[in-house]
Amino acid sequence: MFYFFFQSRNNPSTDPVVVYITGGPGCSTSLALFYENGPFQITDNLSLVWNDFGWDKVSNIIYVDQPTGTGFSYTSDEADIRTDSQGAAVDFYDFMQAFFEAHPQYARNDFYIIGESYAGHYIPAFADRVQRGNNNKEGIPINMKGLAIGSGLTEPEIQYKAYADYALSMKLINQSDYNSLGQLVPQCVQGIKLCGNSSGPSSACTKAFYDCTDIFNRIVNITGNTNYFDIRKKCAGKCYDFSKLNNFLNQESVRQALGVGDIQFVTCKRSVYDPMKPDWMKNYEVVIPALLENGVKLLVYAGEYDLECNWLGNARWVDAMVWSGQKNFVSAPSVPFKVDGEEAGLTKSSGLLTFLKVYNAGHWIPADQPKASLEMIKRWMQGIPL
């Protein structure tokens, strides 16, 4: 598995170790590294400049290409291509064991798993695997302190039911559209329940994928050229151009420096995405309560203008999660998240659980609100209320 590792610009010996996970599934974490919260950004002439808001200012940060087959991670055995997040979690745990064996000086640092989008599936699965490894004394103990999911897909039943509500509230659809979309929800929900039944056929999960994504696709069709990653924007065809990233990483000199041989970098790979379709509608919220009860804190954050993994669906699953602190969290007041005296979002927190709706942001929050996102993650890791 290929990864980038950057020491903290502050204090590598004491700052936490963060693993940042990108979604897709099948999209390289180089996207986050060079377009969001990494230490560098790529210029038009393919040189690198410092990112003043890189998260390496407050952490030692790892960007790992996973599942196997993503980015520069590769395999010669098709059996290594994963079909669910539990399988990816096996590889992730092995990777972290190898990392801390190679870099034992970081093994005692606080450890956080953070990511975005489809990482809403990965992160709970990975954290569950780390927790089990620690409990069973399988290898090097990992000092896991918290998880943060940004604009993620974690609890599909609640989140897919929220699509039409969000779209109507943001005036992307009208009431007639809303009523029509409502007729698709029961089949989606039934499919998710069948997918969640371990004794049911695996084909049920694939069918649920198509039934549920039909809700999202119909909203996208209604909105026309609205960018579903940021509904403030319009686009036709591809909404984002990542050609600079591809051009930079595919330079022979860069590939040699990275030790990846003749592997050609591709931003997002269908060869990883397609096998993961049966995993899409599985509910990974179910493992989070046990993590909270074991003292692992959770931050869920989402941009107000993201349709893809909208804040409303994320807020609803966080509220609905059953754990010992649920009642206190649900009744907790929402308060402004301020950065340099300006309101940058709305947050709710109780105990180990925090939710943040980020203002003026779409799907990729560190790209849209770099200063606010750095302040968010710094305060949260340091235990300072947002």
Walkthrough of the structure:
The protein is globular. Helix 3 links the parallel strand 6 and strand 7 (144-152). Helix content is 40%, strand content 16%. By secondary structure, it is an alpha/beta fold. The chain starts with a strand and ends with a helix. Helix 2 (85-102) crosses helix 3 (119-135), helix 5 (163-169) runs antiparallel to helix 6 and helix 7 runs antiparallel to helix 8. The chain has helices at residues 30-37, 85-102, 119-135, 156-161, 163-169, 175-182, 185-196, 203-223, 243-249, 252-258, 270-273, 288-293, 311-320, 326-331, 365-368, 370-382, and strands at residues 3-6, 17-21, 40-42, 48-50, 60-64, 111-117, 144-152, 297-303, 335-339, 342-350, 353-358. The chain folds into two domains: 3-154 and 237-382, Alpha/Beta hydrolase fold, catalytic domain (Rossmann fold); 160-223, no CATH class. It has a nine-stranded mixed beta sheet with strand order 1-5-2-6-7-8-11-10-9, with helices on both faces.
Fill in the keyword field for this structure.
single chain, 386 residues, alpha/beta, Rossmann fold, 2 domains, 9-stranded mixed sheet, two-stranded antiparallel ribbon, globular
